[in-house]
Amino acid sequence: MRKQIAFIRPKTVPIANVKMGEMLVAQFPDCDVDVIDIKIMIFGSWGVLGINMFLTALYFGRDILAGRKKFREAFWRTPYIFKTVKRLLAKKLSHKKYWFTFQMQSLFDCSQPDTPHFIYTDHTHLANLSYPGYDRKKLYENWINLERQIYQNARITFVRSTNIRESLIEQYQQPSEKVALVYAGSNIEPDNSDPEAKSYSNQNILFVGKDWERKGGPELAAAFKLVLDKLPQASLTIVGSRPEVDLPNCQVLGSVPPSELNRFYSSAAIFCMPSRVEPFGIVYVEAMQAHLPIIASRVGAVPDLIRDGWNGILVEPGDVKGIASAITKLLADQELCRLFGSRNYKLSQERYSWLAVGNKIHESIGEQLSK
Question: Model's pTM, two decimal places?
């Protein structure tokens, strides 16, 4: 009889929620994988929705009105929704005996009694405190103890970056052996064109990100103005966002299907996304696959991805002059771009691919289930 695995995710997006499900199927071919979407389960009950909307307003209404919290985030951080997800999931999973359960992200405790449980996440709530200027009033203080239960009830929490591993150990008191750093893969397939044919002469800077403000878009725009003073032929391509910017040599494209992203990576000379806050940043991996040197901020998971002066340039968050200097340096040195791009491609294959991630997860789960 085939073994059963329950794969539990908040919803189908982001694409990593699909990629991880595919990874489980590939890594455990002798098992059946049941996919369970929490959002579908919750939104199927009008009663649950109504009660939790009322409680969200009751618990967090003042902070929402003050702009310190967003309703759609606060909705998922009430004790009621936390306990309701646990209850509804237990009922849904009670019809089968699962070999293990695997959960994406750490909003809920999806563990079940007597079933080994694993988590894969790119954040913790308390990791927000590491970002410069973070307002502690934005924290969901009363929810943190619930979050702590999530990690306590997992055999292993798999994480994408060193800073989140450190957060789990230092801020949530998780034993180091219960936290495994496995990184993450790309949302798009790599462009398999000849890397030697890659040109870095067009002076095109690429930004890919939906959240223009959080991803450091305004700082990049200000830096680009400074770059144009020295390199008037330089250009900037903005993908994913539609900011209102008045810049020469700038193309704003807005949302682009993942299947079309490779052509923008291929036509760029460098990639720049100087995020203010960055749990991971999958677009950095996409840029790595495209042999691009990268400019990024020294925040969150980024120092895992980019080693300053080795495969890119790191700047302090908000440092407009630093961003401009880094862009100018790379656009003026095609051989440095090629060196950094080559190192990035190799790193993307060795560390930041779903195959590499899956192999590490498979090995760790196998060790746990054999005990």
Answer: 0.92
